[in-house]
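Quick one:
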Amino acid sequence: MYHTCMISKPTPTHIGGQAVLEGVMMRGKTHWVVSVRRPDDQIVSTTKPLPSWAKRWKFMRWPLVRGMVALAEALTLGIGALSFSAQESSDEDIEIGTKEMVITMIIGFALALGLFFALPVFLTRFSHNMVDVLVPAKSWEKTILLNVVEGGIRLLIFFGYLVLVSRLKDIRRVFEYHGAEHKTIHAFEHGVEMVPEKIDEFSTLHVRCGTSFLLVVMVISIFIFALLGTPPSILTRIGLRFLVLPFVAGISYEIIKFAGRHENTKLVKIIMSPGLALQRLTTRPPSRDQIEVAVASLKDLLVVEGESEGS
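Output:
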């Protein structure tokens, strides 16, 4: 909950972020900054320009398409941010090249697709007999019911995964930096001085969080996948889901973007409340030292983009 002394209506900002190993990445309109706390307690940062894909091709700024582009850019930035944080946060002198990070991200992405999209399709086939009893005819009602079952399985796997990883010590540290990122962006949106003592009063939950985005993807996929029917081949069903997934991501991006601009309206609060509740798993209250890292990242970003610090 927000502190009672704070402004009730924040000014929405374009700034987003991501937690990394012992640090925070902040992303603006033209640049992104990663700040990491080294083992010697020093905070180091790197600043780089954002990819200019949307500037080169106008169609990449179209609704739905821009969501797919944003997802691709986020994956690209994630590789660079994690690579920098892994090198700077370790006591050991290690070199993690872009090639290694790309391979790791590809493997992780493939595992995520298998766990959250392919596995539910396989598990849903065991419910076919039950669905045949409830809806014996081959009709659109049966298609919808099967997709609802598949979506429910997908959500259960997603929730179970978050509960499991949230118990890991190293992941909890990342989730604390995730909370620091959210608190800092909240404070900036409210025009509060960028000092840890004041920032710490804000919530760790934010409507534009990637966790909320993933939940929206899971829900929207139920409706979109229902339009694909129920092909007899499981491999065909999985393949079709992978093909339309970018479209699902595009729709989800537009919903999150709209919610970010209207987060104080009653309807948006109701719609986004499940995503905010889910963030209680992916964020943790940060220490003041962790907030300092998030502030360092935001301040460097504001300087390079020529903005004020919101204080």
